[in-house]
Amino acid sequence: MDFVEKIKGISRETWIALVALVIIFASIAPIIHKSVRAEQTDLVKYVATNDKIKDISDKDVGKYLSENLATTIIFVDPRNSDLNKDLFKYILESNGNTKLNREIFIYEEIYPTTFLNNLKLDMNDKIPVVFFEGNKKTKVVNLDKKTNLKKDFANIINKISMGE
Q1: Contact yes or no for 131/162 (Cβ under 8 A)
Q2: Residue 34: what are its φ and ψ, rounded to 5°?
């Protein structure tokens, strides 16, 4: 018996069951993929935090922005490892004594997201600090190798957080 004859021998009910299984797997796959990606992100992600600087996840950032009038977020790209180390070292060493006038957030990009792509931030050798009014990006300041974090970090963050 050749392959074509075997296919012709499959009953209509079997074909319906096979098509139903394919549809079920195709609809479940994106849900499973999203869940696995979120778990991977949580495992890989490392963000230094303190009393005034909090981590914000990809799943929470949109909701948080829509619920708050003014938010400052530092966007960290893992490819900028030297800059990130300097920033995280400063945050950890400051022990919350950063002289920030409000809470800010750090968002670490592990996977490209629509949210981050829509912001159109230049993250090459820079750490963008973005001030949002609601969901709208209103101001961007970049931290780079020249930024003296101990001297200038609080001033930069406080100015952008005030909309200056």
Answers
A1: no
A2: -65, -40
Cα separation, 48 vs 52, whole angstroms: 11
Q: Using CB atoms within 10 Å of the CB of residue 90, give its burial: 0 to 12 exposed, 13 to 18 middle, 19+ buried.
A: middle
Domain harbouring 114, CATH code: 3.40.30.10
| CA-wise closest residue to 112 among 28, 37, 27, 29 | 37
Q: Are 108 and 76 in contact (CB under 8 A)?
A: yes
Look at residues 78, 101, 109, 117 and name the one whose alpha carbon lies nearest to residue 156: 101
pTM: 0.70
| Total structural domains within the chain | 2
Structure confidence at residue 43 (pLDDT): 44
36-94, pLDDT tens digit by residue?
666 555 544 556 667 788 888 878 888 889 898 899 999 988 777 788 888 888 888 77
CA distance 33 to 119: 24
Q: Which of 50, 148, 154 is nearest to 99 (CA)?
A: 154
